[in-house]
């Protein structure tokens, strides 16, 4: 597939682009800064609607000119570009950029007849991650039916983006899949960061004790590219196991004493439920911090 990928210069984007290329997809990265990857790139401002639709409808590299058959069309758009969290700039600017860029990207894709859009939403939509003080889930494990009432501008922007995506899908009937990403972890971060998580599990409370390996995230994107006809869908994206070394029963006893537990859980099972992604698109994460640390 020919894929227009936004935000490929970021942490999650780089790994996803590499994975898609390994699977044979042709990828064009649209970002403000170069990625350093071996990929065609357009440096644009996604908050400018004209630049977005222009980028999606123009040549991107010299070899495309050789065929003499006009601008090649995209089969899908993957939209990962965003201000990645609160407390980088102002709250309002985080909300503005994230919502406006998402509207521009989906609108351009729809107007150009691109049949599939995959966009990054977030674990923060459940209201736990960036809460002022401690907010506990309504129940565990947290699935896609859990209420989304965030308290911060980043998570608010993601909820708005989900509504934008659902509205475009309802009007057009195309496939638009949103990925509520758990905390994205690169392979080198296991040795760097996880010993501290093992020592103090409380540091993972705001991430609902879960994570998504950046390589498995690329696999999830490919699963979504390969699965057609689902309309509008939201998927939690997490690895199968928790990011802490204690058991699920210990997590419940220490952190979720008054939280309903809706089903029995494996001793190391993620509290950020990924069952829907497995069932509907064939998501099968392979990596774990436990392969690196004991």
TrEMBL record:
InterPro entries: Epimerase_deHydtase, NAD(P)-bd_dom_sf. This is NAD-dependent epimerase/dehydratase family protein. CDD domains: SDR_e. Residues 5-223 form the NAD-dependent epimerase/dehydratase domain. PANTHER family: NUCLEOSIDE-DIPHOSPHATE-SUGAR EPIMERASE, PUTATIVE-RELATED.
